[in-house]
Amino acid sequence: MEPKREALRHFEAGYEKILEGFRELGYEPETDENFAGTARRAAKGLHELALDRAQVHDEIARMFQKTFPAKYKEMVISKHNMSFGCCPHHLLPVIYRISLAYIPTDKVLGISKLSRLAKLVSRAPILQEDLTHELARLLHEELESEGSAAYVEGLHMCMASRGASAHETRVVTSAVRGVFLEQLATREEFIKLVTAAHPSLI
Ligand SMILES: [Zn+2]
Fold first, then answer.
1. 20 to 30 Å CA-CA from 166: which of 43, 142, 157, 172?
2. Ligand 1 centroid – CA 112 distance (Å)
3. Cα 68 to averaged position of ligand 1 atoms, centre (Å)
4. 31 CA distance to ligand 1 middle (Å)
5. How far apart are CA 202 and CA 199, in angstroms?
6. Is the pTM of this model over 0.90?
7. What is the pLDDT of residues 99-141, one digit of tens each?
């Protein structure tokens, strides 16, 4: 995905100011060679955690244009996709483990697309709750599925590395649509499958 030059320019200017703050703390960003190019690198790093919304929107639209006819009406699950984003409250990184499911009506998505979807939608300054609902919504509305579910575990650096220092805590959110909302058994099957302890496949 193409970096947005205008955004990078603003991010970089912001990080230049942040480095001035470091000088107040007794560091020497102007003379310490470890800081050479830091504002630019930090800007690129932040941009990787917050992609351009229009580009993400277009890529997701393209993804849902390429579907396959559904042969079965069983639950499809993509479990434990690791992805990254940042929280809108602190702009600090969040590490997510995302599990997605849907029950098809007529269309199925290529299986790798579920992983791609999890990774794309999370790279934004978005609340974990909103991310979870957006993933469930896309799998329900765009696939015209019988129902969909998202289960997201988040390790938030704003909680882990500062403030509460709660590095052991995982924030868990879930969202369900369609049959997952209407049928308790379907919802329970999903939660059981995505939370079950399992030995590694390989
Ligand atoms: Zn935060």
1. 43
2. 29
3. 39
4. 32
5. 9
6. yes
7. 999 999 999 999 999 999 999 999 999 999 999 999 999 999 9
In angstroms, what is the span from residue 106 Cα to ligand 1's centroid? 39
Do the domain assignments include residue 121?
yes
91 — alpha (psi -120 to 50), left (phi > 0) or beta? left
Cβ atoms of 191 and 122 closer than 8 Å: no
**Block residue for tokens 């559904």:** 70
Rounded Cα distance between 39 and 189, Å, is 47
Q: Ligand 1 mean position to 5 CA, how many Å?
A: 26
- 165-179 pLDDT, tens digit per residue, is 888 889 999 999 999
Q: How many domains does the chain have?
A: 2
Q: Are residues 41 and 103 in the same domain?
A: no
Alpha helices for 96-160 (secondary structure H): 111-122, 128-141, 157-160
How far away, in angstroms, is 88 Cα from ligand 1 center?
Answer: 6
Cα(89) to ligand 1 centroid in Å equals: 5
Query: What span, in angstroms and rounded, lies between the C-alpha atoms of 136 and 91?
Result: 24
With respect to residue 143, please indicate whether it lies within any of the assigned structural domains.
Answer: yes
- Tell me, yes or no, whether 117 and 164 share the same domain: yes
Q: Which two tokens stand for residue 44?
A: 């690129």
